[in-house]
Design goal:
By secondary structure, the protein is α+β, with helices and mostly antiparallel strands. Helices cover about 20% and strands about 40% of the residues. It has five helices and 20 strands.
């Protein structure tokens, strides 16, 4: 029996690739509403981000639609460097009257929204000084720093958040250059199966799972979660048909080529197909969600 080895603690999530029905409309949304920068556009695809590595890669599939009750991407989460950057992002959305849902997860401050094609997005900043949130004994929990309980989904104190902004601060510029993908949250067909795959095969560490909430979390290096997993589309849900809107793949960034090779070998020993493509080394979880194994460049 092989000995389980945890994935490198500096592993993180990188580019998220989506199929979209209207590329130009999606580019315009991400530029205007979120301040993403268009890095490149060619052959029906585009890369957007914060001026460095792509955070999103969009590929147009004209006429594509979003298929309900399937596995895939629940949301991708853009991590901002601090509360000021989050305040600016949320204020920008409010200034455009774009519907969003500011939420206090205690250890993070966040807002949720959907793009014009219905893809859910989270934008957040870390706030561990305010308390913790996680899973223990199969249940979700959250506690403020003073020990008082929280449901972890309280409305965000916008007066306090917007106090981070200077009077008349410009909101229309690009997103913070330090923005990156903090985590992804996936729909899967079976929680136990998915947790086993991401921990025993890929090597992420379990941060807990809750049968009651029908979700679990895995991470590298003790982070609260790099990948969230849930069965909210139904036990036994199937992947969306080819050509649908939604997830093409998400990136797992390994710190070195040696670590990527080790992870690829470990995955191959689990009788999982490893696809060598022009876009990278692709691996699919048991629910059909594809990850792209790449080496971080920064």
């Amino acid at each position: 029996m092989s000995i389980r080895v945890s994935i490198h603690p500096r592993t993180r999530i990188g580019t998220v690739a989506l199929s979209v029905a209207d590329l130009d409309r999606q580019i315009a949304f991400y530029e205007k509403a979120l301040g993403f920068v268009l890095h490149w556009k060619a052959d029906g695809k585009a890369g957007l981000g914060a001026g460095r590595d792509d955070l999103l890669e969009l590929a147009e599939a004209k006429g594509a639609r979003r298929v309900p009750r399937t596995t895939g991407l629940y949301h991708f989460a853009v991590l901002l460097p601090d509360r000021h950057a989050l305040a600016r992002a949320v204020a920008r959305l409010f200034s455009q009257e774009y519907t969003n849902y500011p939420t206090d997860h205690v250890m993070t401050k966040t807002t949720y929204l959907r793009d014009p094609e219905g893809q859910e997005i989270e934008i957040y900043a870390e706030s561990p000084e305010d308390g913790i949130m996680g899973m223990e004994n199969g249940k979700m929990f959250a506690r403020h720093a003073d020990g008082t309980a929280s449901d972890g989904r309280e409305p965000l104190d916008l007066d306090r958040l917007f106090g981070e902004l200077s009077p008349g601060e410009e909101l229309a510029g690009p997103i913070s250059p330090q923005a990156r993908i903090g985590h992804v949250h996936l729909y899967v067909r079976d929680l136990d199966e998915a947790m086993s795959f991401y921990t025993e095969v890929v090597g992420f560490d379990s941060m807990g799972d809750s049968p009651e909430a029908r979700m679990g979390m895995v991470s590298a290096g003790g982070y609260h979660h790099h990948i969230g997993l849930n069965t909210w589309q139904g036990q036994g849900a199937r992947p969306a048909p080819a050509g649908s809107q939604g997830l093409r793949w998400f990136t797992i960034l390994l710190p070195t080529e040696a670590e990527r090779e080790r992870v690829v070998r470990a995955i191959g020993q689990g009788d999982v197909v490893v696809e060598h493509t022009e876009e990278g080394i692709l691996v699919r979880d048991p629910s059909g969600n594809a990850m792209n194994l790449r080496v971080a460049t920064s």
